[in-house]
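look at this stuff:

>
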Amino acid sequence: MLPLGKLKLDLLEDMLKRYAIAKDSRVKVGPRLGEDAAVIDFGSKYLVSHIDPITLTTDEIGLYAVNVPANDVATRGAKPMWFNCAILLPENKATERLAENIFSQISYACKELDVAWVDGHTEVTYGLNRPIVVAHVMGEVEKSKLVTTSGAKSGDDIILTKGIAIEGTSIIAREKEIELKEKGYSEDFIKKCKNYLHNPGISVVKDCLLANEVARIHCMHDPTEGGLAMGLYEVARASNNGLVIYKDRIPILEESEILCKEYNLDPLGTVTSGSLILTAEPKESEKVLEEYRKAGIKAMIIGEIKGKNYGMKIIVEDRIHDLTYSEKDEITKIYE
């Protein structure tokens, strides 16, 4: 039986090579390991497209449904523009109020990102114990500004925005609110953690578009399931490179650190929508950091892209270790 989480990457890559063959010459980036979204030539611009299921949370699921795939589109340097989805409601638990809450959340998130909700499907589905939204976002980008995960180059700085486990912090607080209160956590603490969905927020659309506007970006990647470690592995594998990061440079907010410790989660492997990985030459990364400073977006250089033979390393207290990853997200531990 396959374990929870993403498919093992070797299995996924093998099946993509054998079955996901794009026969249309207009497909410039198709289904490849580590790439965030498809890219299709639509004449003067590229159309960028990505689909994601929202399965790890039920509270404010509509906001996740818009923001998560919008992030993947934005990592191409594209402005998210169109949204559609399939909303699957659980049998014997679906109510009109549940449906309306999801609709209102999607509407709010679309307005926040100036995205048009263009299509979809809603049903009550047999065998579910919680709602699931499968969401699809499309956008467009000037051809000269397209960014891919595979574009990372040896010598690039690795920049990370905001901090790690942002989404994970919000999920823990929402899914374990009663338990956290029983453990003695204050309502103010729990409320702040739940609000990580909005502040610092799980959207990286602004982070992506600002960086791509002021500098030549080689790679942008939205680390989600599997956390920062998985996201970095996907960058390394897609670009056929190695990398090194410094643990003491990786930003993590206080509440995230506390909740990860409470539930024995490794923050590096905890779902982290809201963080953006990007790589650029050092002279270009300086431009990005300056623009982020002006915009009030926290960001830090956490490492460097290396040659393929270097592997994936993390430096902890001046000692070099292998950087490990897992397709199974740490957040799944809270459901076990």
